[in-house]
């Protein structure tokens, strides 16, 4: 089967979709598509086959897709330096993350003012959108506003901390004990780890400390490990 | 506990270790260490605490480490463009790979002559060495010479192909059926996948096609997914 390029539409206008300016540029100048070329468009979690005409996107037909009820994962990650953050966002999107909650922790090195927060969020959203298109998702992970870790509240579902202190409660036994859960919120510490106070606060509001085993992973590798093993554990 | 820098020694000379030239540079100019500073040195899969004197490395004592008999993984990966290859090598080393076998497949885009092969191998070996130091391993993954995929032979242990054609035999059921194995050889296809002939050849010599599920992953994400789930499945 031919690999048809996928885009997320901003809007629908009768039998036409409205895309981002960047996407029109991509279609025209990067992919060099022509009239009558086909693309896939996602709108409101539905998938459509569309045809180009004068760089407008006309609906041909809706494509029926089997939607799986996957477990939802909210990744609560410290803001890291740009390259590491980009890697987390791109790979986490491929590996099926639903929500990303960037946080500032006690040991966070990256400091941000209001303006640079907005710039970061724009950058991160466009990385997630592009990765969603590449990996043929029907949705784009939601990125929450950057907040302080200590403002995190207990949430529905399974609440986990990837701890470097906990030695016994390993992620495999823990997930296998909770096979019926439908949502997981996971806190990942920064380089240097969470402080004792941070981990204690999270434990108090219901987050459970687990260990990922004896390997020493870089911070940016942890989300990829976690999303892989969650996908694996709940694979049918 | 203080995080002590770890290095792999090239040689041992009585009560002294000989390191790579790069490592002396790292100790002196990057870490700016001084006389009496401590480092960890791995030699012949043993770990030693050492003390610096005039930038020579003197053994203080041997550190006893519990060695786990982890399952051995040989990753048979197509040679990809530099950035992707670097990511695979660094992250696979963190995630515990034992051997990497770079191969040229029918659909490989990267072409290499003899000279550039040697240059690549040197680069790759130094990435794996550095990642092994960072993640406190006692060994460095072995990188085999670059060969053609069609020269791959059946090997001891479990032989797997990450297939985009196989739809039913998923990695989870497959690994759970083979919990007693101690070595896994995994072939990963390039962008565009293995050709039908390549997959057929591998099947004939005993490689079994498995699917990683319904997600669409970039080639460089596949090894990270696999090593994570193998680590998880065999976690104790």
Describe this structure as you would to a colleague.
Two copies of one chain form a homodimer. Chain A has 236 residues and is of the alpha/beta class. Helix content of chain A is 31%, strand content 26%. The first copy, chain A, is elongated, with a radius of gyration of 20 Å.
Let me know the average pLDDT of chain A.
94
Query: How many helices of chain A does DSSP assign?
Result: 6
Number of strand segments of chain A: 13
Q: Which chains have the largest interface?
A: A-B, 27 and 27 residues
Q: Could you say which overall geometry of chain A the principal axes of the C-alpha atoms support?
A: elongated
Distance between the termini of chain A: 25 Å
Question: Helix/strand-derived class of chain A?
Answer: alpha/beta
Rg of chain A, Å, rounded: 20 Å
Oligomer: homodimer
Helix content of chain A: 25-40%
* Percentage beta strand of chain A: 25-35%
What characterizes the major β-sheet of chain A? 7 strands, parallel
Helix-strand sequence of chain A = EEEHEEEEHEHEEEHEHEH
| Uncertain segments of chain A | none
Gist of the model:
The structure is a homodimer of 236-residue chains. The first copy, chain A, is α/β, with parallel strands linked by helices.
Defining traits:
homodimer; 236 residues; alpha/beta; 6-stranded mixed sheet
Helix and strand arrangement:
The structure is a homodimer of 236-residue chains.
Chain A: E1 6-8, E2 11-13, E3 16-18, H1 21-30, E4 38-43, E5 46-53, E6 56-63, E7 72-78, H2 82-94, E8 99-104, H3 114-134, E9 142-143, E10 147-148, E11 158-162, H4 171-177, E12 183-187, H5 196-204, E13 208-210, H6 222-233
Parallel strand pairs in A: 1-4, 7-8, 7-12, 8-9, 8-10, 11-12, 11-13
Antiparallel strand pairs in A: 2-3, 3-6, 4-5, 5-6
Helix pairs in contact in A: 2-3
